């Protein structure tokens, strides 16, 4: 009985230590990446697929660096987005603003079509805060 209790204690302690490993999970990394991409541009034009953490290391007790790969899969093409922008109501200044947004998309992603895959590699610098992991801007 004592042996069973000791074994149970070791298993529980191992599980507890694994849960407190101090590094973000792959799911957390993918969510942080999605949030970062949403902040940088229109997230409705692509999805993230084939997300993998390739490597990761602790910089110190509060900072973690993760190297990830993923595919951006476009749900709309740039020509589709341009056609939608033309149909939207608005004055000349709004049309110019939408045109500038299209130019930015073209410069960032090229001439993409619905279904195109863009493989990406990304290094994420993270910092642990009271509310969890956040991307640290350099």
**Rough shape?**
elongated
- Could you please say which CATH topology of the largest domain applies here? Nuclear Transport Factor 2, Chain: A
Give the N-terminus to C-terminus distance in angstroms.
Answer: 55 Å
CATH architecture assignment of the largest domain: Roll
Beta strand count: 4
Largest sheet, in brief, is: 4 strands, antiparallel
Uncertain runs with pLDDT below 50, 5 residues or more?
Answer: 4-8, 13-19
Neighbour order of strands in the largest sheet: 1-2-3-4
pLDDT average, as an integer?
83
Q: What is the tally of helical segments?
A: 4
Helix content: 40-55%
N-to-C SSE string, H for helix and E for strand: HHEEHHEE
Can you describe what's shown?
The chain is of the alpha+beta class and 138 residues long. The chain folds into two domains: 24-75 and 116-138, Nuclear Transport Factor 2, Chain: A; 77-114, no CATH class. The protein has four helices and four strands, in the order H-H-E-E-H-H-E-E. A four-stranded antiparallel beta sheet has the order 1-2-3-4, covered by helices on one side. A hairpin with a 4-residue loop joins strand 1 (46-58) and strand 2 (63-74). Helix 3 (78-87) packs antiparallel against helix 4. It is elongated, with a radius of gyration of 22 Å.
